Amino acid sequence: MTTDDIATTAEIARLARGTLLPSFTGASAPRWLLDELELGLGGVTLFALTGNVPSPESLAALTAQMRKAGDPFVTIDEEGGDVTRLGGHATGSPYPGNAALGAVDDPELTRRIYRSLAAELAEVGVNFNFAPSVDVNTADDNPVIGTRSFGPDPELVARHAAASVTGTQEAGVAACAKHFPGHGATVEDSHLGVPIVDADLDLLDRRELVPFRAAIRAGTRAVMTGHLNLPSITRGTPATLSPEAITGLLREHLGYPGVIVTDALDMEGASGAIGIPEASVRALIAGADLLCLGPHEHSETVEATLAAVDEAVRTGRLPVTRLADAAERTARLRAWLAGNSPAVVDRAAGLEAARRALQVTGALPGWAAAPLVVETESSGNIAVGPTPWGLHPWAPDAVRSDGADGAADRVLDRAKGRGLIVVLRDAHRHAAQRALTTALLTARPDTVVVEMGLPVWRPGAAVYLATYGAAAANAQAAAELLGLTSAA
Fold first, then answer.
1. Average pLDDT, stretch 371-397?
2. Is residue 221 within 8 Å of residue 258, measured between CB atoms?
3. Which of 14, 181, 304, 343 is deepest in the core (most CB within 10 A)?
4. How many CB atoms lie within 10 A of CB 437?
5. Strands across the sheet containing 259-262
6. Which tens digits make up the pLDDT trace of 171-181?
7. What is the mean pLDDT of the chain?
8. What is the DSSP letter of 392?
9. Distance, CA of 40 to CA of 18 (rounded, Å)
10. Which positions are annotated as active-site residues?
């Protein structure tokens, strides 16, 4: 091996390492990660379920520890609402999610929410947020977007895409519009497969791409790709691995000049058939600049991916100039981050937005005694995780019901002489929720129905309250309106 060969090997490794965003377990950086950061690792992605975020104080210490070893992008999925990592994974977010903000439709309020949320991230050393979701949610049965979207109207989503990008970056944190080219028209979760978006370029231009254009005009520093099959564009290949989607659609058609990051490559939609190292190579060839590897992808995945990229460069599949191009973009992003100052946290905006998002049909009753609150079972998707939700913090004897045989009779027996509130979450996607609610309303027409997901299914003749989300802020606003607690 010649000196030139060694230099080339070192240069390939340096450039490849700079594209990687692995994860790790625990609230302290392991030795392997610190070593990689010293060698130029691009950064990390933090996850609540792997123990990275036990508290804001520990997270601040963690990010400071990592910055002693390098200059990493510290990335996180902090959307507010149902998808929350910074403390909210344990208690629920103090900020409502996008569906509630879309229901209010006040872009300046959305800007305040995202500026405050990003200010909280900046305080603990997170400089890159995988938000906002700017998907246009046109499929009611979408299993993974739902309340994460501002709504089904492209222009409304575009207004709030621009506001959320602006607010985030006013706090000195890089925004990342996702999931390009749009996950809102799908009925499959890309964690589990490759969803199909059956749209040609004309429809994409009128629907999915409208908010991405707005985010780009607002100066978003990053865009995240989704693992989506657009048959007329990508011809069966997930967008994350498709030059037609990343280079053709995003770079050339939309003229986007900034950083492109992949959604987690451990997801079935990206690597299920080929593995993460090969998916990483294909994403780089397609035009991605940063590779989010996933919550359980640690040192072994980093080593395997570096080896795969080195092999791809040496065999001519991946031009080294493509890696250099990615390095230039990430260097510009680091320079932008270095020149920004954080904003002031404004948590009052969260509760204000949640209160304004509430929509009531019918006249709320006045209860002589505290009503019985019944919370239905609702499985969350992988992106949301086991975040707490519901009204039980304000209703100590609240009951949880799965809608099994006899559930309605048991609830009715406990509710004798009291008002009755049934709490739903995306009832249009859960037959048991609908059946239980219908049975309760048949016996107790005075039952108040609270929907904490998307208000798609509405039972007739019921007093109905839609919160447009299940964050802690949404729950508190609903509890205030229902008289379960006094307004702060």
1. 86
2. yes
3. 181
4. 24
5. 176-180, 222-225, 259-262
6. 999 999 999 99
7. 93
8. G
9. 6
10. 191, 263
For the record, the structure tokens of 445 come out as: 């027409």
What is the total residue count of the chain?
488
**Are the CB atoms for 471 and 82 separated by under 8 Å?**
yes
Stretch 283-301: mean pLDDT? 96
Neighbouring CB atoms inside 10 A of 176's CB total 30
Confidence at 488, pLDDT banded by 50, 70, 90: low
Q: In sequence order, what are the residues at sequence separation of 6 or more whose Cβ sits closer than 8 angstroms to the Cβ of residue 59?
A: 27, 46, 52, 53, 86, 124, 125, 126
Hey, what long-range contacts does 342-345 have (CB within 8 A, 24 or more apart)? 342/119, 342/122, 342/123, 342/171, 342/172, 343/115, 343/116, 343/118, 343/119, 343/122, 343/170, 343/171, 343/172, 344/116, 344/119, 345/116, 345/119, 345/120, 345/123
Give strand pairing partners of 361: 464
Contact 245, 234 (CB under 8 A): yes
The helix/strand/coil state of 283 is: helix
Residue 412 confidence (pLDDT) above 50: yes
The answer to whether the predicted template modeling score (pTM) of the entire model surpasses 0.85 is: yes
pLDDT > 90 fraction of the chain, expressed in percent and rounded: 84
**143 close to 158: Cβ distance less than 8 angstroms:** no
Reduced to 3 states (helix: H, G, I; strand: E, B; else coil), residue 89 is helix
Tokens in use for 330? 């990430």
Q: Using an 8 Å Cβ cutoff, are 140 and 456 in contact?
A: yes
Residues contacting residue 275 through CB under 8 Å, at least 6 positions apart: none
Strand, coil or helix: 44: strand
CA separation for the pair 375, 484 (Å, rounded): 15
pLDDT of residue 402: 83
* Contact indicator for 105, 482 with CB cutoff of 8 Å: no
287: alpha, beta or left? (left if phi > 0; alpha if psi -120 to 50) = left
398: three-class secondary structure by DSSP: coil
pLDDT at residue 190 above 50? yes
Tokens of 264: 């987690």
Does a cis peptide bond (omega within 30 degrees of 0) precede residue 181? Answer: yes
